[in-house]
Amino acid sequence: MQDYSKYQDFATQKLDIEFDDIVLLVTAFTHRSYVNEHKKTAKEHNERLEFLGDAVLELIVTEYLYVNFSEPEGILTNWRSSLVRTESISAAAERYQFEPLLRLSRGEKRGTTRARAQILANAYEAVIGAIYLDKGYTAAEKFIQESLLVTFDEILATGSWQDPKSYLQEVVQSKLGYTPHYKVLSEEGPDHEKLFTVGVYVNGKINGKGQGPSKQLAQVAAAKVALKKYDQ
Fold this sequence. Notes:
The chain is mainly alpha-helical. The protein contains 12 helices and 3 strands.
């Protein structure tokens, strides 16, 4: 019989939950790669729980925003996107110290920072699915409230819910009458692990540089840098 004591301790200490079926929580932390390496002892990975948890997360966040705010649909949609995006939920998983509980293959343990963030985000949704199945909607709502929705005031205060590229375009056009454009300055690394450096230009002058594993993410990073200039 396998020892799941660290998962039981996590459930009681971090989640304030006594799981009836602790295997659900263990499965929530089990990556597909781990099952492939441990076929005799691990039977199921977390993708089905992630599928369920994603739906529960979106419903609870949507209900929270609907009940507490009267903004138009478009703004509520942007707010919801900022809460449930990979960066937000992987950060919540980090705050709850998910990483030591992840069951990964040896290869995945050596993965990139970006890959690890995605794995943490998937595990967060899978944990929601496990809580929902074992304890119901109210328990899942409590976890989401305490781990994620508590960050919403900061998201509003910093304006991070806005798409940086769209926001930069709005600011620059209103202040200067120009439209920002982006240029790839360099590409480094092998195809499976590219690092792009992108510059954002306004009226022919560079306003910021950003890096990322894709051109799109590098553009977003550059826009964030440029926005700091206009927020001063």
